[in-house]
Structure formats: structure tokens, C-alpha cells
Design goal:
heterotrimer; A mainly alpha (about 600); B mainly alpha (about 230); C alpha+beta (about 220); A: about 600 residues; mainly alpha; Cytochrome C Oxidase, Chain A; 17 helices; globular; B: about 230 residues; Four Helix Bundle (Hemerythrin (Met), subunit A); about 0% strand; elongated
């Protein structure tokens, strides 16, 4: 590691005279903000999981008192038996928390904030104070959403997609204040995402260190850049829609009220115009970080770096013209359906390119199965299933029987749990030493990975079969239907697997928490990675670099022939390297 | 940590070296933010267009029946003037005339504030006559007029009219208010001598925002009041 | 417990299931290639000390191949799907002779209106039955879907027919049932706390049975 020590520039003094509050609460340091997002969104991830367990209990054992459910009030689960009105709150809030307050902030809030400046060699974000507001806006939104669970009529009840007019009218849904709080919370979250995105975009465009050209950016940064563009342009649409929904409730407007000439499908178009870019917001950062981890674990340059970038950009463009595939059965003009089917089919191509390139990266590598690599391989293996099951729903005629059934539930969980969450387990383990200066436990990490892989598939794979059988989503009691009665043993099986899956996550939680205190002290570059972030001490000081580092090469120079080691950091100057021009060639 | 020898102040502003495109961070950030704002107003205006066209054959209220065109035309003129004065403020500081910049900035702030004031007056007036987000208030003057003349007053689409009118102009008014507050902040900084011929980024960036807000208003005025 | 698709009860079912199986084979192949490849690479290229990875940045040829093959496949799938889609849901695909049945969805029931002897909806001899859909086999049926309150979704698994019922819109969906029997109709779009019990029985009759049922309804007076 002598080479790295030479490349590492001198670092700031550790005399940091900021007060505790400025340093850890109202911090403007991108790393602290990332870590704040990490703790908050892990809490919401846990909460979303708890809600999922209640959903599974009701589906596995309909009408039976839930163990420990006695603590819930009479309006939710008298005697521990979940009520239908509580059940639809559960499905609504599980989706809402997981999408908006767990996966999205984990991928973007945590890793965009933490990684972008470190990986491009910047001191901080372009606008550190706006960055702080971004966190506090999301935090307030999360708090409002959390509070909505405890208002008298309970939380919102119209599903996380909030289809109007069910979401717009309390007399039809039975909801109360919780519904308004949902809208307010989403507007706050949207504000947070917009503020965050404009920061990420500006920082990546303007604050790259000398030598860090566009095509030397790690794929994680590329992915976060495209994600930021999607977030910047999609979230205001959701905010606008959520505001209309809110006005529907508090001002008596008629946007979605057909009796006054309003249009019900308007909500769906607005929501999914946001919603499909959102799907890519939830997966692109995962793809980017997996690319970094797979190259590291394979000890090989990423296969087809440029086509990986173009695939990301392609998804970024195509993501805007596929939203109608959520509405094939909505009564939208069928000719539009054909158009959206074609665009949807085409958007699967960039995803396929990425999968093949990850495999190409592993091909003839020298694979190291550290915990991040295991999770990254798990990501590829599971994302493939999620991607392929999407083809079924893209084909409009096949969508007809499987739309709004457990097939789509299986699909989204293969993408968001099998995809995004596996990537997150990998990414958190990978950058944990950089964040906290400690290593997470390797053995427990592996146990967690294998148990999760097993129970994840036992939980979600059978849902494809339920969906093929016609099992509708969001139904409180499937045994109401004769044709679903034979599937009840499968529902019970899924429930047991889901409990085991949840229990397996406690291993990760404990590993995460206990390693903060008792973890092995992290060496300087524990994964022998090429990224700039590892030229700093762990954890990096406020302001990161004293002098910005200089970048001499792309991010994936593993097993390069010029050096004896099998990695060649971006900032390591070889005798043959020339100093870059003062400003990087910014892609033009 | 073994680098106690470094003496750099950790609190110094980050990223002094700005490179990439030839636009400084604040300006680039404002452009990026405005892209987001475009999407926000597109959502609102797009919904308005969809609802208005979707409502046919039920007619929309004719221009000038419910909303006063004269007063809003004056307001539009005021806002356009404020854009001009903003340009003047920027040109003055670019020429190094700080004093003139402050004058023009103050003119801009006053125009903006008057715009908001007139809009508040318009809203109270409309609500008094029975126009509100849910449509024409029952028993109000407007409701009676609409009952007597359903076509010119767009009686069947009154609910949509109220919903879209108040949402669009309300959010625009909110943006103007934010602009006035931000410009006041910039003005206070100008009084403290923070801007010079060499560095007047704050003026330029708030100007960008202000022109955007004006532009949105011209679109809104056209499609909401005139058509 | 069936681990496969439900009974094929309409003319659409064989088409849709056929397409489903075609996609299953294609994606199944892709699935096997990727997963087997991953497992093979994991075993074959597992790290060994003193070894370095193969230093390559990729291959343009490989990129072209694995861009082109999925692209051609999905576009072909899209074209085939579109053919069936137009036949099933296209606005002009509904046969002119289709027998109309009005279905009005409301929280949480299906109000099914039959045209009576004249075969026309919206006439005096219409009658409405709650939560029972009776259709004859071998005849084109068009359901005219409306909704009272929120978005519901008409979903009969054996027919493979799903269509949202949207307040403020009148949506037509057609099918031809092929297998007589009693089945179920469910709501596939979350429509409130009673969503799970918004169920109706579906009776697919032989033509003779259907005529008899119709006679009985008309004589017994409209029931609801």
C-alpha cells in the first residue's frame, strides 16, 4: 500500500471547532448528511418490514389473532385480529414507507450524498446548506408520514399509488387526516429530492477534481447523475399531483371528480409520469454501485464501460415514455397502450446490456467473495428474475390476466428487494469502513446474505404462481374466493418464509449496530479499491481533501499490467502519467 | 490520525476551484432548479389543458366574465416592467454602478410586491363575489349569474375553473412572493456592499429566477385570462 | 392446488396463455443462460492467490451481439403482442353482433344489467341483478363498464378478462366464453375497505340454459 500513501494528499487538521449541533445535527458536511439519511431510512426500512409482517400474518392466517397484535388499538386490530380498514392502511403505508422513505433515501439520500464528492474528488457538495435542508425536509416528511399512523382514523388508505377518487374523498375511503398528511409528507419529500438533485447535478458537472473527466467517473457516480436528473424532473410532477390531491380534500377542488367534469385518469397519468422514472430512481443507483463492487470483487476492469454509461443514459431517456404501461387496463386508449408496450419492450434492452456486462466483468476474473461481492452477485441474479418477469407485463395481452395480481407484487419485490436491497446490503457493507472506520463482521455478513437469499426466494417466488392463478393484490382475505381457497396453503407458506426473511434481517441490523462499537478497525483501503474515497483516512475528515487529488485514469484499472498489485487507484501517479490540464475535459 | 501538521482551516468554504462548464455553481444550480420548476408548472398547466379540453362540449367560462382582464393586464404590465428593471439592475452592477443597481433592484421589489398585493385584492374580490376553488359558491352573485346565463359563465365547468384557476395562479403568486423575499435578502446584502462589478452572482441568479417567474405569468395570463 | 394458469374459459384464453408460454420459454432461456453463467463464473473464476484477472475493457463485438439479440427479441414480442392486443382490446375490435351486458360497479358490489328480450341496453325491458353475471357460451358478449364511485376492476380469471371500471367513463370489453360452469368475478383494483369482498358469481350457460334463465327472470320480474 506504499503507493497509495504517496498518492494521498495531506489531510485537514482534525481540530474541528464546530459545535456538536453544527457537526452532527444541522451539519452541512455531505458525509454526515449521508449518514443521517442512513440511520433515518434504515429505521423506515425496519418499520416498512414490520408493516409487511402484519400483512403477511393476515394473508397466511386470515382472521386469526396476530401474536402481539393485542397492543394495537381497537380501531386497527381488536383482540389482535386485523380489520379490513387497518389492512388497507398496512398495504398503503408499507408501499409508501418502502418506496419513499426507505429505498429512495437509502440509495439517493445516503449514497449520492456520501459518495459523489468523495468519488469525484470534491470538498463537499456545491451547495452544502441546501443539502442540509434537503435532509431536514425529507426528515420532516418522514415524521409527518410516521405521525399519520397515529391520527384517529389512521393512515392513508388508497394504496401507495393513491388512485383518485378513492384517495380524494374521505366518504369513500373512510380515511381522515391521515390522507392529508400523506400528501403533505410527499410534497416535503419531493422538495427534499429536488434540492438534493440540483446539488448532485451541479456538483458532478462543476466540482470534479483535475483529471476526473466524464468518462473516468465511476459508474456509481454516472448512475447517481442520471438518477438525479430523473428525480429533478419527476418529483415536481408528483408534488404537483399531491398538491392537487391535497386541495381536493381541503379546498374542495374537482380535479379528479367526474361529477364536476374532472378526470379520474388524470391522477393516474400524473402519478405514473412520475412513477416510472421513480422506478429507475430506485434501481439505477443500485446498478451503479453494483458495477463498482462487481469490478472490485472480480479484480477486473468493468466490461464495456462505455456501453454501461450509454445504457444508463438510455434508461434515463426511455424512462419518460413508458409510464402508460401501468395503465394498460385503466381504460386508456388501446392504441396508446400499443405505443407504451413498444417503448417498454425497448427499455428492457439497456437493462439486458447491463446484466451481460456484469457477467462479462466476472468472466476470467479472479473473484473475491467478500460480503459486498456476494450481495452484488445476488443483485445480478435476482434483478434478472425481476427484469424478465417484467417482459410478461409489458406484453399487453399477457398483462390482462396478471395485472394487479400477485405476479406484479412478485415482480416489484424481485426488483426492489432482490435488486435494490441486495445492492444496498452490498453497498452499506462496502462503504461502512469509510463511513465509520470499522469493518462489519464478515462471517455474519455471509450468514445474512445466504439466509436472505434463501428466504427471499421462498417468499417471493411463489407469488408468481399466485399471480398466474389470478390472486388479486391488496385483498384482505383471499379465502373469500373459492378459486383462491386452494392457494391458501401457499399463502401460509409464504407467510412463514416472510417471517424467516424478516428475522434474517435482524442479523444485518445487529451486525450494523454492533460493528459501530465492536467492529474491527478498518485498514486504509480494506477492499483494495481504486476509488478516490479510499485515499482518505477512514472516516474522512470534514472537507475531505486539503488539496484536491489528481486523477490519472479510469476507475476500474484492476489487474492492470503496469503494476504488480491487482489494482491501480485513480489517484496513483505512475512515472508514465502526465499531469492533467487544470480543468478536466468536460465531455466536449 | 497522524496528520496534525496540516493547518488548513476546516471551516473554509468548500470547492474553491469550480470547473467543468464555464458557469459558476450558483448559476448552474439555478438553471437546474428552474428545470425542475418547469416540470412543476407543466404538471399544473398540463392538467389544466387536459381538464379544459376534456370538459367539452361543456363550455368554459368566457374570458372577462368572471375574471377581470383589465386589472390583471395591469398586473402583467407591472411584472414585465419588473423584468426590465431587473435587467437594468444587472446591467448597472455589470457596469460597476452599485448605486443604480440598488435603485433598480428596489424598483423590481416594489413591482413584485405590488403584483402580489393586487393578486391578493383580486382573490378577495373573486371570493367575495362567489368564485372559489370549488366553483361558484351557492347563493352568491356569480352563482345566480351563472344560473341565468349558463354558457358565458361556464356553469357546468365552474368546479374545474375554480380548481385550476386558484391552483395555478396561487402557486405562481407563491413563487412571486418567494422571489420578492429573496430579492429583499439580496437587496439587504447589496446595502451591505456585498456586490461589486467583479462579483455580482447573487444579482444574476435571482434575476434568472425572476425572469422565469415572469415568463410563467405571461403563459398563465394568456391561457387563463385571455383564452 | 393448481400451480399453473386457471381453466381456459374464453376464446382469448388460449391466445393469451400461448403468448404467456412463449414469453416463459424465451425468458426462461435467458434466465437459465444468465444464472448458469453466473454460477459457472463463480466456480471457475473464484479467486486464487497470486493470480490476476484478465485485463480487458470489453469487446465491441460482444456488446453488439448482446444488444441486438434482446432488441430483436423484444421488438418481435411486441409485434406479436400488439396483434393480439388489437384483437382483444382495440376500440374497433368489438364485434357488431356482441350481446351487451351493463356492469355498474360500486362499493362493494357489481350491478349487472341485462338487455332483456330486445337485446338492447337502455330500454324499458332491461333488468338488473346484483353480483351475478350470466352469459351464454359461444356468443360474443360486450360488457359496458361504469362505476358509481371509485376505480374498480372487472376481473374474471377463467375468461382472462380484466378491465378497470372508471367513474365518469363508459368502457367496453368483449369476450366469448367457451366452457359452461360457475366461476367467480373479483375486483382487481383497490376500491376501499370492502375491496376483498367485492365478489360476484359468474354463470356460463349453454345457450338453452341461458334462454331458460332469461325467461325465468323476465317472468319472475326484475329482481335486484
Amino acid at each position: 500500500m506504499s503507493g497509495i500513501a504517496a498518492a494521498a494528499p495531506a489531510v485537514h487538521a482534525h481540530h474541528d471547532d464546530r459545535s456538536f449541533i453544527r457537526k452532527y445535527i444541522f451539519s452541512t458536511d455531505h458525509k454526515i448528511i449521508g449518514i443521517q439519511f442512513l440511520f433515518v431510512s434504515l429505521f423506515f426500512l425496519f418499520l416498512g418490514g414490520l408493516l409487511a409482517m402484519q400483512i403477511r400474518w393476515q394473508l397466511g392466517y386470515p382472521g386469526r389473532p396476530m401474536p402481539g397484535g393485542g397492543i394495537l388499538p381497537e380501531t386497527m386490530a381488536p383482540g389482535g385480529v386485523i380489520l379490513p380498514e387497518y389492512y388497507i392502511q398496512l398495504v398503503t403505508m408499507h408501499g409508501t414507507f418502502m418506496v419513499f422513505f426507505a429505498i429512495m433515501p437509502l440509495l439517493v439520500g445516503v449514497f449520492a450524498n456520501y459518495l459523489i464528492p468523495l468519488k469525484i474528488g470534491a470538498h463537499d457538495m456545491a451547495f452544502p446548506r441546501i443539502n442540509m435542508w434537503s435532509f431536514w425536509s425529507a426528515f420532516t416528511g418522514g415524521l409527518v408520514m410516521f405521525a399519520s399512523l397515529f391520527v384517529p382514523e389512521g393512515a392513508a388508505r388508497a394504496g401507495w399509488t393513491m388512485y383518485a377518487p378513492l384517495s380524494a374523498r374521505h366518504d369513500l375511503s373512510g380515511a381522515g387526516l391521515g390522507q392529508e398528511l400523506w400528501s403533505i409528507s410527499i410534497v416535503l419529500l419531493g422538495l427534499s429530492s429536488i434540492l438534493g438533485s440540483l446539488n448532485y447535478i451541479t456538483t458532478i458537472i462543476n466540482n470534479r477534481t483535475p483529471g476526473m473527466t466524464w468518462f473516468r467517473l465511476p459508474l456509481s457516480v454516472w448512475a447517481l447523475f442520471i438518477t438525479a436528473i430523473l428525480g429533478l424532473l419527476a418529483l415536481p410532477v408528483l408534488s404537483g399531483a399531491a398538491i392537487m390531491l391535497l386541495f381536493e380534500q381541503i379546498l374542495g377542488t374537482h380535479f379528479f371528480d367526474p361529477a364536476a367534469g374532472g378526470q379520474v385518469l388524470l391522477w393516474q397519468h400524473l402519478f405514473w409520469f412520475f412513477g416510472h422514472p421513480e422506478v429507475y430512481i430506485l434501481i439505477l443507483p443500485a446498478m451503479g454501485m453494483v458495477s463498482d463492487i462487481v469490478a472490485n470483487g472480480s479484480r477486473k476492469p468493468i466490461f464495456g464501460y462505455h456501453s454501461m454509461v450509454f445504457a444508463l443514459v438510455g434508461i434515463g431517456f426511455l424512462g419518460w415514455v413508458v409510464w402508460g404501461h401501468h395503465m394498460f387496463m385503466s381504460g386508456m386508449n388501446p392504441t396508446l397502450g400499443s405505443t407504451f408496450m413498444v417503448t417498454t419492450m425497448i427499455i428492457s434492452v439497456p437493462s439486458a446490456i447491463k446484466v451481460f456486462n456484469w457477467m462479462g466483468t466476472m468472466w476470467r476474473g479472479n473473484l473475491r467473495f467478500h460480503v459486498p461481492m456476494l450481495n452484488a452477485i445476488g443483485f445480478v441474479a435476482m434483478f434478472v428474475i425481476g427484469g424478465l418477469s417484467g417482459v410478461f407485463m409489458a406484453a399487453t395481452p399477457v398483462d390482462m390476466p396478471i395485472h394487479d395480481t400477485y405476479f406484479i407484487v412478485a415482480h416489484i419485490h424481485y426488483v426492489l428487494f432482490g435488486g435494490s436491497l441486495f445492492a444496498l446490503f452490498g453497498a452499506i457493507t462496502f462503504w461502512y469502513p469509510n463511513m465509520f472506520g470499522k469493518m462489519m463482521n464478515e462471517r455474519w455478513g455471509k450468514i445474512h446474505f445466504w439466509l436472505t437469499m434463501l428466504f427471499f426466494n421462498l417468499t417471493f417466488f411463489p407469488m408468481h404462481i399466485l399471480g398466474m392463478g389470478g390472486h388479486m393484490r391488496r385483498i384482505y382475505d383471499p379465502t373469500q374466493y373459492n378459486f383462491l381457497k386452494p392457494y391458501q396453503p401457499m399463502n401460509t407458506f409464504i407467510t412463514i418464509a416472510a417471517f424467516a426473511l424478516f428475522a434474517s434481517q435482524l442479523i444485518f441490523a445487529l451486525n450494523f449496530i454492533l460493528s459501530l462499537r465492536w467492529g474491527k478497525k478498518a485498514p486504509l483501503n480494506p477492499w483494495e479499491d481504486n476509488g478516490l474515497e479510499w485515499t482518505l483516512p477512514t472516516p474522512p475528515p470534514h472537507g475531505n481533501w486539503d488539496r484536491p487529488p489528481t486523477v490519472y485514469r479510469g476507475p476500474y484499472e484492476y489487474s492492470a499490467p503496469q503494476v504488480a498489485e491487482d489494482y491501480l487507484p485513480q489517484a496513483k501517479k505512475l512515472p508514465t502519467d502526465r499531469e492533467p490540464a487544470a480543468a478536466p475535459v468536460a465531455g466536449h | 490520525m497522524a496528520h496534525a501538521t496540516a493547518t488548513v482551516d476546516v471551516m473554509r468554504p468548500p470547492a474553491p476551484a469550480e470547473r467543468g462548464v464555464d458557469v459558476y455553481n450558483l448559476k448552474l444550480g439555478m438553471w437546474v432548479f428552474l428545470a425542475s420548476e418547469v416540470m412543476f408548472f407543466t404538471a399544473l398547466i398540463g392538467s389544466y389543458i387536459v381538464l379544459r379540453f376534456g370538459a367539452s362540449p361543456n363550455p368554459w367560462a368566457q374570458p372577462g366574465k368572471v375574471l377581470s382582464i383589465q386589472i390583471t393586464a395591469f398586473n402583467t404590465f407591472l411584472l414585465i416592467c419588473s423584468s426590465v428593471s431587473m435587467v437594468k439592475a444587472y446591467a448597472s452592477i455589470a457596469d460597476g454602478n452599485v448605486k443604480l443597481m440598488k435603485v433598480w433592484l428596489l424598483v423590481t421589489i416594489l413591482c413584485g410586491a405590488t403584483f402580489v398585493g393586487i393578486q391578493v385584492y383580486e382573490y378577495t374580490h373573486l371570493i367575495h363575489h362567489g368564485f372559489q376553488p370549488s366553483g361558484y359558491r351557492e347563493g352568491s352573485e356569480l352563482a345566480e349569474l351563472a344560473a341565468a346565463n349558463p354558457v358565458p359563465y361556464g356553469a357546468a365547468t365552474a368546479g374545474l375553473y375554480g380548481s385550476t384557476f386558484f391552483t395555478m395562479t396561487g402557486f405562481h403568486g407563491f413563487h412571486v412572493t418567494c422571489g420578492v423575499i429573496s430579492m429583499t435578502y439580496v437587496f439587504i446584502r447589496a446595502l451591505r456592499g456585498k456586490y461589486s462589478q467583479q462579483d455580482h452572482r447573487g444579482i444574476e441568479v435571482i434575476g434568472l429566477y425572476w425572469h422565469f417567474v415572469d415568463l410563467v405569468w405571461i403563459i398563465l395570463f394568456t391561457i387563463v385570462y385571455l383564452i | 392446488m393448481s400451480w399453473w394458469l386457471p381453466l381456459q374459459g374464453s376464446t382469448f384464453a388460449p391466445q393469451i396463455d400461448g403468448l404467456f408460454i412463449a414469453i416463459l420459454i424465451i425468458t426462461g432461456l435467458a434466465f437459465v443462460i444468465v444464472e448458469a453463467g453466473l454460477i459457472w463464473f463463480v466456480i471457475k473464476y473464484r479467486g486464487r492467490p497470486g493470480r490476476k484477472g484478465h485485463y480487458t475493457h470489453g469487446s465491441a463485438k460482444a456488446e453488439v451481439i448482446w444488444t441486438a439479440i434482446p432488441a430483436v427479441t423484444v421488438v418481435a414480442l411486441g409485434l406479436v403482442s400488439n396483434h393480439y392486443w388489437k384483437e382483444i382490446k382495440g376500440r374497433d375490435s368489438i364485434p357488431a353482433d356482441a350481446y351487451p351486458i351493463g356492469i355498474h360497479a360500486k362499493q362493494f358490489e357489481w350491478q349487472v344489467t341485462y338487455p332483456g328480450p330486445d337485446g338492447q341496453l337502455g330500454t324499458a325491458d332491461d333488468f338488473t341483478v346484483r353480483n351475478q353475471l350470466h352469459v351464454p357460451v359461444g356468443r360474443n358478449i360486450v360488457v359496458v363498464l361504469t362505476s358509481e364511485d371509485v376505480v374498480h376492476s372487472f376481473w374474471v380469471p377463467v375468461l382472462r378478462v380484466k378491465q378497470d371500471a372508471v367513474p365518469g367513463m363508459t368502457i367496453r370489453a368483449w369476450f366469448q366464453a367457451t366452457v359452461p360452469g360457475e366461476y367467480e368475478l373479483g375486483c382487481a383494483e383497490l376500491c376501499g375497505m370492502g375491496h376483498y369482498r367485492m365478489r360476484a358469481r359468474v354463470f356460463i350457460h349453454t345457450p338453452a340454459e341461458f334462454t331458460a334463465w332469461m325467461q325465468q327472470q323476465i317472468q319472475g320480474g326484475a329482481t335486484s
